[in-house]
Design brief:
A hairpin with a 2-residue loop joins strand 3 and strand 4. The strands form four sheets. Strands 4-3-5-2-6-7-1-8 form an eight-stranded mixed sheet, with helices on both faces. It has a six-stranded parallel sheet with strand order 9-16-13-10-12-11, with helices on both faces. Strands 17-18-19-21-20 form a five-stranded mixed β-barrel. The protein folds into four domains: 202 residues, Rossmann fold (3-Layer(aba) Sandwich); 180 residues, Rossmann fold (3-Layer(aba) Sandwich), CATH 3.40.50.300; 130 residues, no CATH class; 74 residues, no CATH class. 39% of the residues lie in helices and 18% in strands. It contains 23 helices and 21 strands. It has 669 residues and is of the alpha/beta class. The structure holds cytidine-5'-diphosphate and magnesium ion (MG). The site of magnesium ion (MG) has 3 residues, from helix 3.
Amino acid sequence: MSQRTAELLTQRKSLPIWSGRESLVRAVINNDTVVILGETGSGKTTQVPQFLLESQNFKGVIAVTQPRRVAAISLAGRVSAEQGTILGERVGYAVRFDEKSGPETKIKYLTDGMLGRELMSDSLLSRYSVIIVDEAHERTLRTDLLFSALKRIQRHRNSGKRADTKGKAPEHDKENPLTIIIMSATLDAERFSNFFNGAPMLYVKGRQHPVKVYYTENYQEDYVESALRTLYQIHMSHGKGDVLVFLSGQDEIESLNKSINIYADQMPEGKMKILTCPLYAALPQHKQHKIFIPAPPDTRKVVLATNIAETSITIPGIKFVIDTGVAKEKSFVTQNHKGTGMDVLLVKPISKSSARQRAGRAGREGPGVCFRLYTEEAFKNFREAATPEIQRCNLASAVLTLKCFDIDPTSEEYLDPPSEESVQSSLLILYGLQALDEKGKVTALGKQMANFPLDPPWACALLASQEYSCTAEVIKIVSFLSSTSKLLMEPTSEERDTVADMRNKFRHSSGDHLTHLNILHAYEEVKAGNGGLDGPGSKRALKDWCQKHYINERAFAEAGDIAQQLALACRRVGIDPTTSCGDETDGVLKSILRGTFQNCALIQQDGTYRQIVSRLPVKIHPSSTLFGRKVPAIVYDELIFTNNTYARTVSALEQSWIAELAIHNRRSA
Ligand code: CDP
Ligand code: MG
């Protein structure tokens, strides 16, 4: 055993879950399903799969699902190190567009979405002996769908096994039964247990120290500003201890990060320094890693995080928590009586259960303090727990998957069923995309769409690209739009005009989609420069070029990975991913329109735009290259709701294309 592995073993042994490992393993062997509850940081996610592996009772792979890809990747790294093996061998991971695992992999961390995709090729998930559904309290759509699928699979794989074993352990080697473990950080476990036929519940005690909670006297209009003030109050009047601030998203985190650092530079000599560490899902892994590193002496670490730090990730050293009381939540907005709609991300007050989790982060290593930037009255009005995502988001992809398995989405068994309205709306969207026929049966096209790791509208656009011979172009654009990193960075107000001038040369007259493509082609040209270490095409040259244009270089890397995966998926269904239309780019926009006709708006007599399907008035976002221009019709990637409804990533369409689409749809129907 290497010194590092030995060190890690000592750490493992000090985790609260370690002492209970034998009874835990026994419970898992003796039951089809077990629910495990425990404080964040007690060792559930990293240790339970290792205990099971080390017990040698399970032949197949042990899967651990995570709602977030960053958690899946970092956990696999950690557990692989604890096992003393190379990542991708005994311990691996699989997330959308990225996988490190092999034939010898025994423990696999994967996103709940990835496991859902594996169902498509292996409907009984037979390579897995144990499936651990982690962070079950988050109740993401994919986790909930997984619950339904797992219950179905378990009924099939374990049939008859329990009935005749009265009290004795089920005979696990005879066939290939599936053991399910549900892990959750909150106490609302009875639901899970009831859903899985009264599965036993195990409790792991955490190390929780008392946390003193303070509320504000009054409502805080600007909670980011209030967080800044609170942070400096802590910094000036308290000794050692790191701070964790919960905010709603990347934009708030970046803005607070900036203001903290402006003040930090003005701190009096001799005062402790401040080191900020942002943490959000789209941040690259090596930057996220900073939060785990202890701060240097005389420095206070301040972690600025989204609700990703609520339970999925444990951060050492935190003594103070500042809770702004908000999080971004996906909601499905139904647009009209026809029942169609779309997902939007809105900043919403958190639930009581989240607020308690957040406060708990301050008491992991000793007594802590939590500053809630809202009144006690407001807290009392918070919901007990967040509404499960399945009841508030777009189900198109989920419904399509179920349809592929010939399962009626209205008769599936759910932990909490989705509303009839949203199921209907998804059926309509899928029908519009011709993924379903008028009887609601999945079409050949629908089956092809389900093969792509994309939302059905984008899969549809990609399939349509074949007709217009522009698959290469559509793959590139869809990759950018699917990437978590934004391609264009926001210049400072002083530099805005210069940057706009610099970027002018990429501008495509049809709008943002093809402008994105031009930027990519320009980048590839710089890259092809190939001038040695420092010359054109070098890493340095690329970096400079990106900086000069305020372009996020990371977006190219991420989109490039996605494009590769999509190309593979295309090849699998017999589409040549390299077919290019050159400069004849109309087909690119027509393909995009085919998939996202829902996001199409026509100009009105007064010069405003209205969505065709819902009649919703929309404005072109100021960041768009089409801002201020009047064109007959537009198609956009997303809507942003502020005081106005803005369309972002917009392209101009010719009205005849919309008529053409209608004819196409009628003909194929
Ligand atoms: O799942 P749970 O919250 O119960 O705990 P865990 O994720 O298994 O983490 C147990 C401990 O492992 C944490 O308290 C960290 O000290 C450590 N850990 C780490 O150092 N790095 C990681 N990527 C994950 C866990
Ligand atoms: Mg965990």
